[in-house]
Amino acid sequence: MVKQKERRPGSKTVGGPGAKPQRDVRRDAPLKTGEPPAKPARHDGTRSAPAARNRNERTAEPRVAASVSAAPERPLIVRNGERPAERVPVILESLGAGDFHLIDSGNGLKLEQYGPHRIVRPEAQALWQPSLAAHVWDNADAIFTGDTDEDGMGRWRFQREVLGETWPLQLLGIDFLGRFTAFRHVGVFPEQIVHWTWMKEQIEAAKRPLKVLNLFGYTGVASLVAAAAGAEVTHVDASKKAIGWARENQALGRMEKLPIRWICEDAMKFILREERRGSKYDIILTDPPKFGRGPNGEVWHLFEHLPSMLDICREILSPKALGLVLTAYSIRASFYSIHELMRETMRGAGGVVESGELVIREAGLDGKSPSRALSTSLFSRWVPK
Ligand SMILES: C[S@@+](CC[C@H](N)C(=O)[O-])C[C@H]1O[C@@H](n2cnc3c(N)ncnc32)[C@H](O)[C@@H]1O
């Protein structure tokens, strides 16, 4: 590994004097749902949380005000059974997979490899200094130059040539498109690989047809992994654009024949309806943002709605369910808050609740040299054993 000898990479130095020609490109307009109105009152200081992130991270669609609440009238069910056993803390770690690895991080930035492209993006949790020399960072193919306003859109600066908006990637055998979006995202959240690998193993080992529900499913990589492993999948996201991208990913992998229902709807509304209908799922993945909006302006606020969401999810788990998996990011909370909520919600269900953090370990330029761990999110999952 090349050690740092010169100046450190950072927003001021990357692309500074002597750097290669650059082009700034603003990709796609904001999507239509997913985040609160521009510049809302800050509800907490997300940057200081254990898994703190920019509020705009991992949301497909920041956008307009509307005040319809998706908070259900439905009261929480009183549950008196024993709480499931617990396993804490569990750190689920990934060193990258397929076409992705984290090369280096530091100075509030991360340097990642996505297939042929090396990309620099903000990473508030990288408080340390980068390991690699500044010229390695400066040579990245694309650098996200978001304004420092957390709610702001950003531009991609291309160091050599202007790159296409999308490019092919593969993870866990699934083809999909990497994508330079306006909000620093690249069409996939690779820290989820650990959940997807777990889910794939469950589906393959089950030897029976499983039904998987992917709530807040974004570009559908998890849905495609589940369907390719043999499950019947229901994918729900509030963003028409994200659903369109998910369908593109399905077509790219020639997976159109696989049983996936793509549903553009508010997640709470959808699960409430499923509960009324008596629908059941064997595995539920839910990866909600802190704030979001349904297609009709329904408000999702994690701290208000998560207890209800888990309560309803429990009701739509099948009697032989294999897991309920929650990821939470960009919130000021310990994993214990989602852990204890999950245990309360799953009272009487037996099994075990395991909770902790999802981390990605730096893997160096070659993708094989483990170094520091970068925390990305909190998780809690109930499993029957
Ligand atoms: C962090 S992304 C999920 C990423 C996904 N788990 C993955 O790894 O590919 C959050 C998603 O929630 C969606 N969303 C936001 N508010 C929503 C709501 N009220 N109902 C359904 N989806 C919503 C956004 O459109 C976005 O795609």
Shape: globular
| CATH domain fold name of one domain | Rossmann fold
Q: First CA to last CA: what distance?
A: 42 Å
In the CATH scheme, the class of one domain would be Alpha Beta
User: What small ligands are held by the chains?
Assistant: S-adenosylmethionine
Structural class of the helix and strand makeup? alpha/beta
What is the CATH architecture assignment of one domain?
A: 3-Layer(aba) Sandwich
* Strands in their spatial order, largest beta sheet: 3-18-19-17-14-11-12-13
Assembly classification:
single chain
Q: Which radius of gyration do the C-alpha atoms yield?
A: 20 Å
Largest sheet: 8 strands, mixed
Low-pLDDT runs: 1-22, 28-57, 59-67
**Average of the residue pLDDT scores:** 85
Please give the share of residues in helix: 10-25%
Approximate strand percentage: 25-35%
Number of helices: 7
Order of helices and strands: EEEEEEHEEEEHEHEHEHEEEHEHEE
**Total E-strand runs:** 19
CATH superfamily of one domain: Vaccinia Virus protein VP39
What does this 3D model show about the protein?
With 385 residues, this protein is of the alpha/beta class. It has a domain at 68-95 and 186-383: Vaccinia Virus protein VP39 (Rossmann fold), CATH 3.40.50. Helix content is 20%, strand content 28%. It contains 7 helices and 19 strands. The chain has helices spanning 134-138, 193-206, 221-229, 240-252, 267-277, 302-315, 335-345; strands at 23-25, 68-69, 85-94, 100-106, 109-114, 117-122, 142-144, 156-158, 166-171, 174-179, 211-215, 232-237, 260-264, 283-286, 291-293, 298-301, 323-328, 352-361, 373-383. The chain has an 8-stranded mixed beta sheet, with helices on both faces. The protein has a 6-stranded mixed beta sheet with strand order 1-8-7-6-5-4, with no helix packed on it. The protein has a 3-stranded mixed beta sheet with strand order 2-16-15. Helix 2 runs parallel beside helix 3 (221-229) and helix 5 (267-277) packs parallel to helix 6 (302-315). It is globular, with a radius of gyration of 20 Å. The protein starts with 22 loop residues before the first strand and ends with a strand. The relative contact order is 0.20. Bound molecules: S-adenosylmethionine. S-adenosylmethionine is lined by residues 33-34, 58-61, 189, 192, 216-219, 221-222, 236-239, 242, 266-267, 287, 289, 292-294, 298, 300.
